[in-house]
Design brief:
By secondary structure, this protein is mainly alpha-helical. The chain has helices at residues 6-18, 42-54, 60-70, 87-96, 103-129, 136-139, 145-155, 160-171, 215-227, 235-249, 285-298, 302-317, 319-322, 334-347, 352-370, 382-394; strands at residues 207-208, 251-252, 257-258, 262-265, 271-273. The strands form 2 sheets. Strands 1-4-5 form a 3-stranded antiparallel β-sheet, with no helix packed on it. A two-stranded antiparallel sheet has the order 2-3. The longest helix has 27 residues, at 103-129.
Length: 409
């Protein structure tokens, strides 16, 4: 637990009350067209009200209203279903309620996500067997099997499918069958751009360290599996291998350590780090430092944990870095940095991190209350900011576990 901050809780409450009635949401809200989107639809807003209800600050009937809206269209179970959309997103939201009210619906969603995961695992292993390069959407957190692994880890960690996903992620760290690497590139190097599609701006692809679309997510999920006492052949070795790779690219300046968001090939054909990313969750220190901290704890590597904590502490203390986050959201903005730091402070070996939270929380709260709530979304809008402020405001980890979708816990 951390000290509670009433101003942060007050701001969160103000936003939650403004988002209580779906009919009062601005007509331009794009989530109306995609209510099953965790990032930008009704299911994401439901998480705010679920968390408030779980902590005694809200009404579960409001959460139910948003969940009902989220299921107002046929539930997506096809190619576009993933942790952030469709059946998996809805299943994780129902799980977050912590009640038996949705038992039948959740059981049906579990069956759907199990079938979806098995099909995607079969396709992924077939791709590896053919020695085809890794596609981003096969494995990443937002669209791929890492995200589905998050679902299974939190819904039924002991289920065989959970270990099957972990085994697949371990296999990603092995060379492709029959290939003898002469490039020095890791097996998880992707022959695409940052969008996951071929990009003339990245003719030789890239290596991704981020949490949203890169190996930062794999590091975090494997670490959480270890902390859940799950084992599968080679898991710890794979985690150590990925950590060693990130160590190669860790940068240190006069303020502290940081990691590039991605790597490209320079004119010599060798991997080179991208520029210093802003301290966001998706590609910056907010996500990568938490992944490294979790790895340090899972592998009993206190130096790795200390480096991670020193890195995010440097970002929090440097106004030139926080100024790079003009947005409020979880993905690209202040809320992502705040909540990652909050989670890291709980596990930190020093109280220094917790001492920095009130300043950033105050800035975020003031910005949130000074702007009209035109963007209510979870990842880029007011919902995510309100959830981050709620955690700091109460001083307790989320009871609903909503931040599992960010692989922060």
């Amino acid at each position: 637990m951390s000290p509670a901050h009433p101003y942060a809780l007050e701001a969160s409450t103000t936003i939650a009350e403004a988002l209580a009635d779906p009919q009062a949401i601005p007509p331009a809200f794009e989530g109306r067209a995609r209510p099953q989107s965790l990032a930008g639809g009704a299911v994401g807003i439901a998480l705010l009200h679920i968390e408030r209800a779980r902590t005694g600050h809200g009404d579960d009937t409001i959460a139910h209203t948003w969940l009902k809206l989220a299921t107002s269209q046929p539930i997506s179970t096809g190619g576009n279903a993933n942790l952030f959309h469709g059946a998996p997103a809805l299943g994780l939201a129902l799980h977050a309620t912590g009640t038996t009210r949705y038992r039948r619906a959740l059981a049906a969603l579990d069956d759907t996500v199990l079938a979806l995961t098995r099909a995607r695992l079969a396709a992924a292993h077939a791709r590896i067997d053919r020695s085809y390069p890794l596609p981003m959407r096969e494995f990443d957190l937002i669209h791929g099997l890492t995200g589905l692994g998050v679902y299974h880890l939190h819904r039924h960690p002991g289920h065989p499918v959970t270990r099957d996903v972990l085994a697949y992620l371990v296999r990603l760290t092995h060379p492709l069958p029959g290939q003898h690497d002469t490039t020095g590139l890791p097996p998880w190097w992707m022959q695409v751009g940052l969008s996951g599609e071929p990009d003339p701006g990245h003719p030789h692809g890239h290596g991704n360290l981020g949490v949203a679309h890169g190996m930062g997510a794999v590091i975090a999920l494997l670490s959480l599996a270890v902390l859940h006492d799950l084992t599968t052949t080679g898991l710890r070795d794979a985690l150590a291998h990925l950590c060693s790779w990130t160590d190669q690219w860790r940068q240190d300046d006069n303020l502290g350590p940081w990691w590039p968001g991605y790597l490209t090939l320079d004119h010599t054909g060798r991997p080179a780090p991208s520029h210093h990313p802003r301290p966001s969750w998706c590609y910056g220190i907010a996500g990568t430092a938490r992944a490294q901290q979790l790895a340090g704890i899972a592998l009993d590597a206190p130096r790795r944990q200390a480096v991670a904590e020193r890195g995010i502490l440097a970002a929090l203390r440097d106004p030139t870095r926080t100024d790079l986050l003009p947005e409020i959201g979880l993905c690209h903005g202040k809320a992502g940095l705040l909540h990652a730091a909050f989670r890291m402070a709980i596990d930190a070996r020093s109280p220094a991190l917790a001492a920095e939270l009130p300043n950033l929380a105050s800035h975020l709260a003031a910005q949130l209350l000074s702007e009209p709530t035109t963007d209510p979304e979870l990842m880029d809008g007011a919902t995510g900011a309100a959830l981050a402020l709620h955690a700091v405001g109460t001083g307790t980890p989320p009871m609903s576990g909503w931040d599992t979708v960010l692989l922060l816990a």
